Amino acid sequence: MNLIPDAPTRERTSYFWSCLTLQDNCPFFSSADPNLYYFGITLLSLYIGFVLMILADLKFYWSVDHLQRQIDYYVNLVRKKVKQVQSDQRRLMSTQERTENQLKRSEECKHMVTGIRGALATGDPQQLNALTAYFVDTRPLNKNTWNVSENIVNFSPE
Prior knowledge:
This protein is mostly helical. The chain is 66% helix and 3% strand. It is rod-shaped, with a radius of gyration of 48 Å.
């Protein structure tokens, strides 16, 4: 018992779709009220303005994101270079310390050799005994003749 007769259904398109496809039933193209035409143009320009602002904003954030990636890359590059310089400096300092120790030991040995030559030239055995007693190696002797930490061959008697 349907009291409403079956009316033929007709699909009606929305006003938005009508205006988007520029059909005749768009209310903004009405000749009855020309103000609607200007209102439609204003509304369309606002939509275009919003779309342009969104696109410009996205482009700005994309460029900022790219800039941030470049900054991160260069910060990491500088950190890596600083670590390399620090390790090179540590290596250089240990080499410099070893060189200074070898130079000091060489100066001591040169002084001892000069003293022994002088004592041998004079022919005085007491002076030679005094020199050899004075220049005693104070480093502890180990059974290994290769000193690993200093990379020096130790030729002193064990």
